[in-house]
Structures are given as C-alpha cells and as structure tokens.
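ok trying again, last paste got cut off:
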Amino acid sequence: MFTRLNSFRFVPILIFCLLQGVPAWAEFSLWEIVANRQSKTVCSGVFISGRTVEDILLNDLDVPKPETVKIEVDRENLTVTVRLADGYTSTAIYRPECGCTNLLDQSEISVRSHPTDTIPVLPPRSESALWPKGEGVTKPDKSLGIDKRKMRKALDKAFEEPFDNDKLIRGTRGVAVIYDGQLVAERYAPGYSKDTPIIAWSMTKSIVSSLVGILVKQGKLDIYQPAPVPEWQDSSDPRHAITTDQLLRMSSGLKFTEEYSPQLVDVVVMLYGHIDVGRYAASLPMNAKPDEKWYYSSGTTNILSRILRQQLGDHATYLAFPNKELFNKLGMHRTILEPDASGTYVGSSYCYTTPRDMARFGQFLMQDGVWEGERILPEGWVAYSTTPTPKNPRGEYGAQLWLNRGEPGNPENRRWPQLPLDAYGFSGFEGQSVAIIPSRNAVIVRMGRTSGGVKAWSQGEFMGNVLKALPKE
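nice, full thing came through this time. structure:
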C-alpha cells in the first residue's frame, strides 16, 4: 500500500480530503485519480517521448517498485492501461497527431472518431540547415563574444545533483540558449536529446495566449467583449461580465484552487477527473468581481482553449489550428498539444515539446510575433501580453506570460532579480522555464523534472549565470 501511495505526489492531500469528506471529491475515488494520472503519464512518455515504462515509473511517477502497478502497453492498438491492486483501471489512448488522452468513461471508439487526421504534421526538419530553419548548428562565431568557460560552468551547474536528500532533485533534462538569433549552447541529460519531447506543463498557457492572438488577428474574437462561454450567456449570471481579456490576465474573479493543500484540489480534479476540462472550469462560481484581484488559475486557460474551439466552429478546423497557424510556421515539428476526451486541447498543461522548439517560440515572441517576414500575431499583441495586469503583485504577470517588471515603486522586488526588468517568459510545474530578454537579445530554455522547489532549482540563478556568459549589449 505504501508503494502505491508514493506513486502520486498529491496522495496525502487526497487522503486527507477523503477522510474529511471534502465535497469536491464526492464524485471521485482516490485510486481512480491515481490510475488516470499514471495511464496518461505513461502513455505520453512511451509514445511521444520514446521512453521505457520503467524509467517513467521511477523518474516521473516516483514508484520505487514498478511491479506494484500493472501496466499494459499495447503498441499495436496504441493504448496504455493501468491496473491498480485496489481494482481501479484506467486507459489512455495515443493518436500520433495529438498525443495521449485519458478515456475516463468515454468509449475508445468515440474518442478516436475525433477528426485528428486533419492535423497537418511536418516531417523532420533538415539536419543540415541551421537552426531555426533546420536542426543544424555550428560553433558560435568568436565575434559574438560568448565566454565559453562561463557558459560551460552555467550548464554544468544546471545538470549537477549536489543533494544527499532524495526529496531534492534538480532533474534538468534539456537546456538551450539562443543569442542574436543563433543556437549558441545546449545540453541534454542521459536518455534525452534534441528530439525528445518533454512535458511543458504550464508553459502551455503561453502558447494558448498566442493562439488567442492569432484568432484576434483573424477577426474572430474581441477580447474586450464578454467571453463567449455558453454557461455565462444569461445576463443575470455574474459571470456574464467576464471578458476574454480578464481570462487572459488571470483576473476573472472565478473561483479556482491551484495550490495543492487539503482544501484546494480543483486543478487535480480538472486534469484527472473530467472529460471536458474547460467546461469544468467554466462551471465554477465567482469569488470576486472581474479585475478585483489577480489569481493564477489553470482553469481559466482551459476556458480559453474551449473559447478557441467554439469560435472556430468546426472541430477539425480547431484541432488543426495550432499546427497550421503556429507550430508548422515556426518549424516546431516536435511539439504536440494533447486534448481531453471531449476533443478540446488541455491548454493549461498538456504540451510535449523540446527545448529547441520552445526556443523557437521564445524567439518568435522576441521578434514581436513575426517569423520569416510573416506577421503571425497582431501588431501590439506582445506588448499587450507583457503589460502587468492590475492587482498583480510585483508586476509579474501579463496575459499568460510571466514578467519581471517588479513591484511598482520598488523594481528591485521582482520575480527574477538576476535578470533585467524587460525579461519575460513561461514557467511550468517541476521547473520548466523560458526566459526572453530583449535587452540582451537572448532566449534561455530549461526543461526537466525538479523535486524540492527553489531549494533544488532556481530559475533566476541559472538564467543569470547564462547571461554572465553573453556579451552585454
């Protein structure tokens, strides 16, 4: 029993909730949630990242004795089924165009009937053409002025494991550094390479923001009008006043519990218990007026993903939208967004990508949403996204992007004190991060799986160390 408990990081929280009778869990079983998380994680790890079941159980799900969990990987039918000794079973299916999805109580036939075959998938990029157009790299020209010793030292520290405590794991799996539009440094942990997709977690939110921007450019959405959410259309519903802009800025006033404490379980319920994650988030009540307070919420991003689907209308058009309008244009051929069982992308969390692809996306934003001469984002969208939202402490959040502006009147109190004030970027669970630093013409990517929080990994310290190796502008 102890081994199975240890396989899910939030199990102590879930047990407490069950024992205390927390209402949010009334319709779920502890082990149902555990099984769903395991089947989804194993499915994506095996079929997208090309890893072994044993590696995933030990290093992603913290199962010290994999034999206590029965995993069935069906490579012919592209499914993963998890069977727990408690009797709970969960199946996730893989579709090459859009990754893995928990079936929950949906039939495999119904989920596989989604029109994913219309998603345009790029072939591998040229190995000879230089990044970002291809995958080729050359040694940085000496004229760039990069201090190789300092860069090597920064990367060495990023990958070292100096802790005796097994609860502190740095867990860096991939790093990429862009300077002056060139890939000037990268490194990967054993078992990983430039072609290994890694889960981005909440960095996915920043991708969703760009997809919303593209929809705005196409004239299909006005973010300053009430959000087109079906459940909120009654003018007597206080949620009717929430705009898409307020959802983008995490200032909607919707009740959502992101923190993992005994009373706060919405994010786990949403990801591992609901067929339609956006609909679940949209069903929640308000606990503040719009723009009255700022609160980070994965639920609001999934509402945005659902809005994208609704405004695009046709399901096939929606499923193809990220690849057609963004990933394929940027050459992000190793990036996959994964949908829930209803066929809506889980925009809060489920993107598998590589450090190189995230570097492309970061460079794209630093170029104001223009790529190879084509304006993909509307003019002014990056400026809007990097403007601090009201009520946000330290000026550290814009529209689905983290900022480094600092506390009004006290800019030294900022998210990454090691970085310039103009830095912004993406952050995700377990230490995923991208920093975009226009004043230094740099994009810095780190992906991995950290345990132990800031004691094990400091994003700001790493990024600051990399900047020391780059010339000052």
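cool. The longest strand covers residues 172-179. Confidence is low (pLDDT under 50) at residues 1-26.
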